[in-house]
Amino acid sequence: MKQLHNIFTGLLLILGLLIASSAVAQEDDITPQEQKENTVDVKSIVFGHIGDSYEWHITTWGDTHITIPLPVIVYSSNSGWHSFLSSRLEENGGTYEGFSIAPAGSRYEGKIIEHDAAGEEIRPWDISITKVTLSLLINSALLLIIILGVAHWYRKREQGAAAPGGFVGFMEMFIMMIHDDVIKSCVGPNYKKFAPYLLTAFFFIFINNIMGLIPFFPGGANVTGNIAITMVLAICTFLAVNIFGSKHYWKDIFWPDVPWWLKVPIPMMPFIEFFGVFTKPFALMIRLFANMLSGHMAMLVLTCLIFISASMGPALNGTLTVASVLFNIFMNALELLVAFIQAYVFTMLSAVFIGLAQEGGKSEEATE
Question: Is there a single domain that holds both residue 240 and residue 102?
Fold first, then answer.
């Protein structure tokens, strides 16, 4: 066994030396001009895919960029409302009707801007349909079709009919798992009041996570990796917790059951409890945003390794290409699991926070 280990180690060492020597030899043959031309801008590739934009880039065929231009809708305090397709900007040298996209290095980088009389960049009121917005609309429409299709099947089903199979049966299992194992057990007796919101939140996050992993249109947009989306979801949970919170919930915040010297004369514990009202939704927002964003970035960086190593010789490029493909397959499989886990965790934590706010109320035990 030890002998096999030594042989394996030796083969790896020889392979490493061959790769290194091939890379050095290849670098000696490359002129500075060629090296500059072969440089891959990883930053623009990664942030171009995970960021938002005013057009949806589908693919590049030769020198032709196949994109879907999206409507730009802005309001300027100087000239009023403007509406045009984003392709107008490219057709007119980057500026159309006084508007342009802020270049790299600007504080409004990638956003629609205009210039005032002094030449300063100013932001108009922007309600454009961007890549993330369009993806959000497509994914929401897909979610509605799935859920309403399942609901339509149940409305058509006769009394006492056999249990559904196929896709409808799968959706029933999925919905009941979240309803019984998460919502009912975490919220408590009042679970029926909050089940519609929590089920909607789960499937909304899950469908957007899955669509974000599809590398071609209409997938690929980083919806749940956009902090504005996760912020709105966190605000919805914040409102559900605090608007419907019981009097016992508010009493425990402003006058918790702790020794008096922790409440007077300095209200230390009430301050901590009140601060926690805002940190809980903030944690929900950051958790979902950071996990989905990091997964997309990891896969994009692994893919970029193929192009970065293209000028390093066939041995090194071939090795890194194989490694990149294998790691990407692993990361995609892992992200499929993460897509479910993040939707599950967001729903579970929201249900726990709502359940804690309902604790001590006078609501009656809900029936099955």
Answer: no
Q: Which of 306, 307, 298 is nearest to 213 (CA)?
A: 298
Report yes or no on 40 lying in a domain.
Answer: no
Residue 305, domain member (yes or no): yes
Q: Does residue 201 share a domain with residue 100?
A: no
Crossing angle, helix 227-243 and helix 314-358, to 10 degrees? 10
- How many domains would you assign to the chain? 2
Whether 149 and 247 share a structural domain: yes
- Assigned domain for 84 exists: yes
What range defines the domain where residue 74 resides? 45-129
Q: What number of other Cβ atoms are within 10 A of residue 1's Cβ?
A: 5
Q: How many CB atoms lie within 10 A of CB 362?
A: 7
Mean pLDDT, consecutive 10-residue stretches, the chain (368 aa), reads 46 44 45 52 73 87 85 91 92 89 86 88 93 94 93 81 81 92 92 94 95 87 91 96 90 83 80 90 94 86 78 77 86 90 95 88 44
Q: What is the pTM of this model?
A: 0.82
Asked if residues 274 and 256 have their Cβ atoms less than 8 Å apart, the reply is: no
Run of H or E residues at 80: strand 80-85
Residues forming beta bridges with residue 29, ordered by sequence position: none
Residue with tokens 């399942």: 150
Distance, in Å, from the CA atom of 113 to the CA atom of 125, rounded to the nearest integer, reads 10
